[in-house]
């Protein structure tokens, strides 16, 4: 009994100590102990200062939430329209071309403290509410700490408080605030969502699943259908925007407190498991007014078609071959809503990138020239822009003034050079130069011979020397009749101002196209019922052509007038039935003297008594490489 009584006493002592420590911490955090020893004369001033710090701190916390963890968006993001979503305020992409752009909790703490120091004076108004005291030029130095469920600040106020009536001098105590915002928890949740997306490419997978499962969009496969089919690219873009808007909002994160969709497919396929339970809801948003860069190959300009022909008499049905590759990029906005604090939201964004049907989060798969957007964004491309300048007048009123300022501030000198000729004879005049930044393409100007103000040529090689709109990792596109369009990646910024950029261009050679069929050991022309599809690509040089043969029997093809290696695919169809195919790499060497390009397609005949299904299976497995020839 004696030992048991001793144990009970120790337990009671432990509880008392624990309660004592907890009480002390509570009193310390709520400034009770400090205020007990604080002179009564300055208590109103101290509370006023802390109220201002709290109010400005709340503004900073909300700004951090709105702008994806940033109060001041870094210049490399702010100056690049493709690095953020603009919904009235800029929400940065947290992952951009393989680069992690997530601000750390420490970054947010430093920015919040700096924001308080820079803006608290506006609220305090030089302590004009206390005319009986003299407080001049008080300097504030703040530190902040962002916990999962609270944000605390500690501010040192450097300066004296002088009571005018008595001359008594006081100093500020340490000013402390604590606000119950789960900013740290929401930042942690956003980090986990972003890590999941970067590792699993979930949004890219959902995007392609939506495309592949659609009854409307052309993708992969064979179809027996005699109706004529075509799609306009703009119609597909509009359809995709609507599809993404309605489906991405059904993405759920488990165990975040958010209602299920209650549709078994979505509850299973659109749910992502997280490691922790968070007191926040997650909304995945795509707005159709946001840009969606889209390219579909093969194409005929803005028109998308399968490879098809129509015959009057068909034994196997009308044949359509679909092998369409989708390259697209669009922004997704995440909005996290706090369950702890109704007025706190946390936004961040990410690009979703598919390149030729494959997830491409780090943008390591480059687009062909023809896969880039061609729309001109007048707001981005304008040489000048309107800005509103705000000025605080001495009486405290805010005055705004609209000013016109230059948008294009930095120059590039661009030369277009023919790779088949020596410098300076190879400098190309009248080459058209445009600049691509995200979904915006700007017409910049033409290369020309430099001249003085009197119009006298200086003797320098032809070039374009002018200002470009700023952009990180934009593209210079150069075009000239008779040349293959060239594209190079080039940023425009203060660091690249006045840089000389040489763009190599390859001339084109127009050749007449012939297609011959190899039947057994003989070569022959196509019969009236036969047609061929030839696809020629060089990914490194952004070259991609499709030939539907014959087109009035005078089909022509422009090849690069320089040695190059192409990937060639050839398909033979007779009365809409697949009859042969081949694929190979083809290197051209004597292109300069050539007049014709001859392509060969092997014909695989159907065996006696062979079923259509067996013949088709054998045809798909059959592979004979017969390289094209230049003649």
Please tell me about this protein's structure.
- Strands 15, 16, 20, 21 and 22 form a 5-stranded antiparallel beta sheet that branches. Strands 32, 33, 36, 39 and 40 form a 5-stranded mixed beta sheet that branches. This protein has a 4-stranded antiparallel beta sheet with strand order 27-26-29-30.
- The chain has 5 domains: 6-33; 38-68 and 103-179, no CATH class; 184-371, no CATH class; 405-505, Immunoglobulin-like (Sandwich), CATH 2.60.40; 508-630, Sandwich (Immunoglobulin-like).
- The model is unreliable at 22-29 and 309-317 (pLDDT under 50).
- It is α+β, with helices and mostly antiparallel strands and 631 residues long.
- α3 (43-66) crosses α5 and α7 packs across α8.
């Amino acid at each position: 009994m004696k030992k048991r009584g001793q144990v009970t006493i120790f337990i009671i002592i432990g509880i008392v100590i624990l309660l004592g420590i907890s009480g002390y911490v509570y009193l310390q955090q709520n400034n009770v102990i400090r205020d007990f020893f604080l002179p009564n004369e300055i208590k109103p001033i101290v509370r006023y200062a802390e109220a201002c710090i709290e109010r400005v701190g709340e503004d900073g916390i909300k700004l951090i939430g709105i702008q994806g963890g940033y109060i001041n968006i870094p210049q490399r993001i702010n100056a690049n329209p493709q690095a953020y979503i603009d919904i009235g305020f800029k929400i940065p992409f947290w992952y951009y071309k393989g680069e992690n752009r997530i601000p750390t909790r420490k970054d947010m703490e430093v920015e919040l403290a700096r924001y308080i120091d820079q803006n608290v004076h506006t609220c305090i108004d030089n302590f004009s509410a206390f005319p009986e005291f003299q407080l001049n030029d008080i300097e504030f130095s703040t530190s902040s700490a962002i916990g999962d469920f609270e944000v605390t600040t500690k501010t040192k106020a450097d300066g004296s408080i002088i009571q005018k009536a008595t001359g008594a001098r006081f100093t500020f105590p340490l000013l402390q605030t604590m606000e119950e915002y789960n900013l740290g928890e929401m930042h942690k949740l956003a980090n986990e969502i972003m890590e999941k997306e970067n590792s699993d490419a979930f949004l890219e997978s959902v995007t392609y699943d939506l495309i592949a499962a659609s009854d409307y969009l052309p993708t992969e496969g064979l179809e027996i259908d005699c109706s004529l089919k075509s799609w306009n690219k703009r119609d597909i873009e509009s359809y995709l925007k609507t599809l993404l808007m309605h489906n991405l909002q059904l993405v759920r994160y488990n165990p975040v407190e958010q209602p299920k969709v209650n549709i078994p497919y979505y509850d299973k396929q659109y749910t992502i498991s997280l490691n922790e339970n968070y007191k926040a809801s997650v909304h995945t948003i795509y707005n159709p007014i946001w840009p969606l860069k889209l390219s579909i190959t093969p194409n005929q300009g803005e028109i998308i078609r399968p490879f098809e022909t129509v015959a009057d008499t068909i034994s196997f049905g009308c044949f359509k071959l679909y092998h369409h590759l989708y390259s697209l990029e669009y922004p997704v906005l995440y909005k996290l809503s706090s369950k702890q604090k109704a007025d706190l939201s946390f936004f961040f964004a990410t690009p979703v990138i598919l390149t030729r049907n494959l997830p491409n989060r780090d943008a390591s798969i480059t687009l062909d020239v023809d896969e880039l957007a061609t729309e001109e964004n007048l707001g981005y491309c304008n040489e000048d822009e309107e800005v509103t300048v705000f000025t605080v007048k001495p009486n405290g009123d805010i005055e705004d003034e609209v000013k016109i300022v230059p948008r294009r501030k930095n120059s590039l000198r661009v030369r277009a050079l023919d790779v088949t000729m020596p410098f300076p004879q190879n400098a190309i005049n009248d080459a058209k130069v445009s600049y691509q930044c995200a979904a915006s393409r700007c017409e910049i100007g033409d290369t020309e011979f430099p001249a003085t103000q009197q119009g006298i040529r200086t003797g320098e090689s032809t070039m374009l020397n002018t200002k470009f709109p700023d952009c990180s990792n934009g593209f210079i596109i150069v075009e000239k009749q008779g040349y293959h369009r060239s594209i190079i990646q080039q940023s425009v910024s203060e660091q690249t101002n006045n840089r000389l950029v040489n763009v190599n261009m390859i001339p084109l050679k127009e050749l007449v196209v012939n297609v011959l069929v190899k039947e057994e050991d003989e070569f022959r022309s196509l019969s009236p019922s036969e047609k061929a599809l030839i696809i020629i690509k060089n990914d490194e040089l952004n070259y991609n052509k499709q030939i539907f043969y014959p087109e009035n029997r005078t089909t022509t093809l422009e090849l690069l007038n320089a040695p190059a290696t192409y990937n060639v695919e050839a398909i033979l169809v007779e009365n809409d039935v697949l009859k042969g195919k081949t694929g190979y790499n083809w290197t051209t060497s004597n292109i300069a003297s050539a007049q014709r390009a001859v392509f060969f397609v092997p014909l695989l005949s159907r065996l006696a008594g062979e079923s259509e299904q067996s013949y088709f299976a054998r045809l798909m497995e059959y592979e004979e490489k017969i390289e094209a020839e230049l003649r």
